Amino acid sequence: EAGVTQSPTHLIKTRGQQATLRCSPISGHTSVYWYQQALGLGLQFLLWYDEGEERNRGNFPPRFSGRQFPNYSSELNVNALELEDSALYLCASSSGQGAQPQHFGDGTRLSIL
Amino acid sequence: GENVEQHPSTLSVQEGDSAVIKCTYSDSASNYFPWYKQELGKGPQLIIDIRSNVGEKKDQRIAVTLNKTAKHFSLHITETQPEDSAVYFCAASRGGSYIPTFGRGTSLIVHP
Prior knowledge:
The complex is a heterodimer of chains A (about 110) and B (about 110). Chain A has about 110 residues and is mainly beta. In chain A, about 0% of the residues lie in helices and about 50% in strands. In chain A, strand 7 (about 65-70) and strand 8 form a beta hairpin. In chain B, the strands form 2 sheets. In chain B, strands 2, 4, 5, 9, 10 and 11 form a 6-stranded mixed beta sheet that branches. A 5-stranded antiparallel beta sheet of chain B has the order 1-3-8-7-6, with no helix packed on it. The chains are: A mainly beta (about 110), B mainly beta (about 110). The interface of A and B includes residues 55, 56, 58 and 98 of A.
């Protein structure tokens, strides 16, 4: 069974640009979660999508947005990039809402120059 | 909302020793507690989990204990090996529309 896959592995952008990160969940999983992991910090929750709908949002500005497609894959968009957006962005999927195991991809390393 | 405290932030042990990482949570409605291991350059990997109707769970060298009354749970690794070196995260979840809350992580270093 294929795990959660994320692309690209690395992404280098400059301030003010826009970035798009992609995630494919485990087959059969309908929920996708996005987290930001800045250097030395824990996992900060960004967004949760389930069945194509945004279910919850973390304490991040509106320039962080995303969507989930009919095949349950998802993309995260970050507009007007700032230096502090440099981080590892992790995607996780689970088989349903709430108290189910989340399975993570290996992330996209976003570097802002 | 839920608050998860994880200690210690760094743990250094000799190969063969045991390692214990502790987490406390605040929301008594939390009922699912996973543990993740994150190696350098990788995403977190689920290594063991426990639900609130169970007090202890073991998987080879790894065990998790849960004390619902005290609202704390712990990860125990016995006979540590250098490949156990990683950052370990605990989390607490209550299901429904709630998002799991993660601890800040413990960097475990196993010296050969």
